[in-house]
Amino acid sequence: MTILYIGYWSFENNLTKAAIFPHLKILSTFTQVKKIILITLEREMRIKNRNSVLPDKVELVQLYSGKSIFSLFNLFRDHIRYISDVRRIIREEGIDMILANGTQAGTIALRARNKVGIPLIIEYFEPHAEYMADNKVWGRFDPRYLYLKNQEKKQKKYAEKLITVSRKYKHKLIENGLNQKKLATSPCPVDKVVYNFNPGKRREIRRQLRISDDYIVGIYTGKFGDLYWDGRAFQLFAYCQRFFKDQFFLMILTPQDIESVKRKLLQNQIDVNRVHVENGAYESVPDFLSGADYAFSLPNTNPSSVGCAPIKDGEYWASGLPTVITEDIGDDSDIILENSAGAVISEKVASWEIAMIKIKKILLIEKHRENIRELAINYRSIDIITSIYRQILEEEYMN
Predict the structure, then answer these.
(1) Beta-carbon neighbour count of residue 214 at 10 Å?
(2) Burial class (CB in 10 A: 0-12, 13-18, 19+), 256
(3) Which stretches of 209-331 are DSSP H helices?
(4) How far is the C-alpha of 167 from the C-alpha of 242, rounded, in Å?
(5) CA distance 90 to 96
(6) At how many degrees (to 10) do helices 143-158 and 103-112 cross?
């Protein structure tokens, strides 16, 4: 069997490393899978073929956008080119199944396989068009919103399997009339070997950053803005500085401009000497998590956040970190609340004080890291998606 796996990010993007690489590794373990062709979309610069970091069964194909200045016209032109390229790969490689990561990749996959009859599986199936509109990244009359909204509707109808990242969104789809047999749920799995509290790395990170043993260290990983808190996040960090006083320290690992982040820290009267900001490599994240005491996960709360399951949450849990998370984020807010694994906050400052008091109490529990790590084992295990893949490969539509 030859599988075509379509991603929507560049090969070097951290989302590709976190959300796609683990799945390729799992798929490669099935004996009936002889070859996997991974497609990544390269929008900025041409990079060398990086097959060396992929499983032996995986062949990398990079599709490139045009070099024109960004515009909606160029965006849709690239989209049409991607569909054409994928259709050619399907024909030339004799593809037996298509896996698309997310609804944007699913749009390319669905249009490319049109009238071919190859089974299409869309994982990380989320209400992406609604995310973008709810967070005011796209307007509801934006051609991108209208197009993706329409394509997501078609994916619900024509894809053989949709794998959501939250049980709440799966149940919502069933309530709206979707056949339960078409649905499965699996958040992004976390490698519990890579993401694991390491006392040696903790000492090393804290020594490098001159963090005293009595400091209570928070960590934030990822971007600010769009789907996540931006200005409000820095107000929260400022509150944490006032709450923890001389024990305050914060680590921020972000792909965004460091000087821009530091300006926001200063605008909120946060002592930049008590904050480490870095564009660190994705591979270094586990070490920094070991150096931290608690973590922040701050997606915007809105009607579409029911379909959310931030990858960082599983990484935090596997590292044993109590997590401060915004309310109504997929299943994760409830999981944290029900398991006393952190605190759930709103935009109201009153909820922040309650959250920090909870964090301090959790940190006093002797085996809190081991207890929180169980969440990653229960809710982010690779066994979940492995079982789903096994079921898919045994379905009638695969014969």
Answers:
(1) 7
(2) middle
(3) 231-244, 258-267, 285-291, 311-318
(4) 37
(5) 9
(6) 70
Any residues with CB less than 8 A from the CB of 196 and at least 6 apart, and which?
286, 318, 319, 373
DSSP single-letter state for residue 365: S
Distance CA 220, CA 292 (A): 10
User: pTM value?
Assistant: 0.94
Task: Please answer whether residues 217 and 211 qualify as being in contact, where contact means their C-beta atoms are separated by less than 8 angstroms.
Answer: yes
What type of residue sits at position 110?
L
Give me the helices (H) in 16-136, please. 21-27, 72-93, 103-112, 128-134
Judged on CB neighbours under 10 Å (0-12, 13-18, 19+), 74 is middle
- Walk me through the domains of the chain, giving residue ranges and CATH numbers: 2-188+381-398 (3.40.50.2000), 199-379 (3.40.50.2000)
CA distance 189 to 24: 12
Q: Are 195 and 381 in contact (CB under 8 A)?
A: no
pLDDT digits (tens, 9 = 90+) for 14-35: 999 999 999 999 999 999 999 9
31 phi, psi to nearest 5 deg: -65, -30
pLDDT tens-digit readout, 186-244: 999 999 999 999 999 999 999 999 999 999 999 999 999 999 999 999 999 999 999 99
CA distance 201 to 140: 46
Q: State the residue for tokens 């997310």.
A: 102
Nearest of 394, 332, 361 to residue 190 by alpha carbon: 332
